[in-house]
Amino acid sequence: MADLLALYRHAVRARLLDDRLAVLSRAGRIGYHPDAQRAELVVVAATAALAPQDWVFPTPRDHAAALVRGASAAQYLDHVCGNADDVLRGHGTPGTFASRALRIGSPSVQVSQHLTHAAGLAWAARLRKTTEVVLAFFSETAADAGDFHSAVNFAGVVKAPIVFLCKTDGAEAPAPDVEVHAKAVAYGVREAQCAGNALEVFDAVTEAIARARAGEGPTLLEVRISTEPDPLAKLQRFLLAEGSLTEDADFAFRRELLAELEHATVAAFDKPLPPLDSLFENVFSGGDEGRLTTILESQRASLRAARLERAPEGHSR
Questions:
Q1: In sequence order, what are the beta bridge partners of 104?
Q2: pTM of the model
Q3: CB contact set of 61 (below 8 Å; sequence gap of 6+)
Q4: Which residue range(s) make up the domain with 207?
Q5: Is residue 38 helix, strand or coil?
Q6: How confident is the model over 52-89, as pLDDT tens digits?
Q7: Number of structural domains, the chain?
């Protein structure tokens, strides 16, 4: 049974971070910010259904998933600032936070490319005979992209332990010609649908994960999101009415989160940028002892030479 208060607080944390990143983007302090579009509760509830060994592949709008998996606001702000503590060393655009330690796969700025990676990881888990399950989020427009069809088809053939979760709100254009969950029949995978209510999402994802872990293969789950009225405000009113939450406690919680965000924001911008040589890290894995290819080594040498030429006399960077 999902803990509604815990889900609510995860979603509040994600909403406040979303608001902060939107302000930083409008002010030109970060490159851009793909906002969560009030879908935090769906992402939080689905991610909360995962076990520690499972993986999640979010979209750039699903920063709530990273928070549920254990990422701190400071880690996420380091990422969007691309500073020296960014786990991606500035290689990814804002919204592409990933972490092997937290089992968060790389989001894709394209609508569906991450789905094939998610299906591949799930297939690897099946081959290794582990208990890992993968949860992959995507938008309704991604259901008309080639990578979506390739991923679901492949996962269906090899019975990969994966849950494909489509967030549908009807606002995407152009919308798919048919309901997303109905496309499951073409690939022989289980189809499911539910409303964007936190408890319904948690239960639907929990059931799909159990089937995947039992070797029954993928599920294509469509979650229909209604953003009017605001789902987070609606849940807040429910928790206040049933006595699980008080206004004073909610105010104190939000004030604590805002203070944490303010401190993390200042700290993130005060940190140095990654060293220029990090441009060449994790780009090419081949070669003896991980050495760069000849052309990359040449480019790195040219960059180092140019950097030394620009450095003030008596100093090097």
A1: 56, 99
A2: 0.91
A3: 34, 35, 36, 37, 39, 95, 139
A4: 4-270
A5: coil
A6: 999 999 999 999 999 999 999 999 999 999 999 998 88
A7: 2
